[in-house]
Amino acid sequence: MMNVPLRLVVHGMMGLVLGAACVLIGIVTTVALAVATDGRAGIPGVFEAWMEPYQGSPSLAFVPDMLGLGGSVVLVAVAYVTIALAIGRATSRRGR
To answer: 10 Å Cβ neighbour count for 11?
Structure first.
């Protein structure tokens, strides 16, 4: 059985990886939507992409918000750690 600080570190790292993966999936989805609709698509405060002509051919333009990207990753990580610790406590109480 792991002690609480070690569980916090392990779940925190897992939460950061999960948060980065969720943000990456959101960015890929936003870009795909912008290309498919030939218009603007975005995640407010995180990422925005749109198609615009450049020298006669279509091109993709995008604006990432680094503070929003980092905040999204941290938000998912904190939510994951909170849920993981709550589930761990609940299952340990049930096993007693």
So the answer is: 20
